[in-house]
Design goal:
It comes from Candidatus Pantoea multigeneris. The chain is elongated and about 65 Å long. It has 308 residues and is of the alpha/beta class. The strands form two sheets. The chain has a seven-stranded parallel beta sheet with strand order 8-7-6-9-10-11-12. Strands 2-1-3-4-5 form a five-stranded parallel beta sheet, covered by helices on one side. 34% of the residues are buried. It contains ten helices and twelve strands. It binds glyoxylic acid. Glyoxylic acid binds next to loops.
């Protein structure tokens, strides 16, 4: 099997060496080296090359190297080409860590304490038990479910919201637009792990913030285009929101003069919440390739209708 990898080179090299040793029938080429283009059946990529099907006329499978596949313009790809996103334990663990860090930071008032530190202000605030902190996760896929389970184990009062109904033991699950208001009304810390779709673009806006309890906070680790940044700044200004932890922005990188960088109630990280880990992703990749060879269903197939 001839595969081309087009993403972070370090990881590609490790995968290439590992596959050569453990699955020698699979030959992984590291872009821009592609072997014989007509023989390439699988592309594993973050950003695919322009004119993908011209470059690889016999491509049969496109695998995103990340948790999302919104970087692909699905309208430009043949409907028959399966597109798969990455589901692997290292990526999930990274997101669980980031979300836990952000929720604990917000729960323990850290944005306020860091501001106080800069002003050399020794002032304490009451501690709330986690059971009195209502955490809400939007997006209950692989990452959302893992995050919510970790947060529940820390004692937070957890709920989840997703497009279609889900059941998670011990977690109150809301679904669809008709249950969004109820979910928001009970959420002190809102975490967005939604995929980017036409429905989620601009979803985190003034209207949504207004439905949260006053003084709620936001953790955004979905996609930058989901957040209306001016609405976030206004909500922080008015006190409707008290703080935000942002790992994604639009655009990325955020220009140096952008107000989000310097806002005292915002923690901003450069899209590092989680990333596909070379070692742990290998097994997931190989498993999907073998399933594909055997004609079995793949893990993480993108539904073209839903866009994720
Ligand atoms: C990163 O955002 C990813 O999709 O893996």
């Amino acid at each position: 099997m001839q595969i081309v990898y087009k993403s972070e080179p370090q990881r590609g090299l490790l995968w290439q060496q590992w596959l050569a040793q453990h699955a020698p029938d699979i030959q992984l080429h590291l872009w821009p080296e592609i072997g014989i283009a007509e023989e390439v059946e699988v592309l594993v990529a973050w950003q695919p090359p322009a004119d993908l099907m011209t470059v690889f006329p016999n491509l049969k499978l496109l695998i995103s190297v990340g948790a999302g596949a919104d970087q692909f313009d699905l309208t430009q790809l043949p409907a028959s080409l399966p597109v798969v996103r990455m589901i692997e334990p290292g990526l999930t663990q990274g997101m669980v860590e980031y979300v836990t860090f952000a929720v604990l930071g917000l729960h323990r008032d850290m944005p306020r304490y860091f501001q106080q530190q800069r002003a050399a202000q020794w002032q304490t605030h009451p501690i709330k038990p986690p059971a009195q902190r209502r955490v809400g996760v939007m997006g209950l896929g692989e990452l959302g479910q893992a995050a919510i389970q970790q947060l529940a184990s820390l004692g937070f009062d957890c709920a989840g919201w997703s497009r279609s109904p889900r059941q998670i033991p011990g977690v109150q699950c809301f679904a669809g637009n008709h249950q969004l208001a109820d979910f928001l009304a009970r959420t002190d810390i809102l975490i967005c792990l939604l995929p980017l779709t036409p429905e989620t673009r601009g979803l985190l806006n003034a209207q949504l913030f207004a439905q949260l309890p006053r003084g709620a906070s936001l953790v955004q680790a979905g996609r930058g285009q989901q957040l209306v940044q001016d609405d976030l700044l206004s909500a922080l200004e008015s006190g409707q929101l008290s703080a935000a932890v942002l790992d994604v922005t639009a655009p990325e990188p955020l220009p140096p003069e952008h107000p989000l960088w310097r806002h005292p109630a915002i923690w901003l990280t450069p899209h590092i919440a989680s990333t596909t880990q070379a070692e742990t992703a290998l097994a997931a990749l190989l498993e999907n390739l073998r399933r594909w060879e055997r004609g079995e269903s793949l893990r993480g197939v993108i539904d073209r209708q839903q866009g994720y």
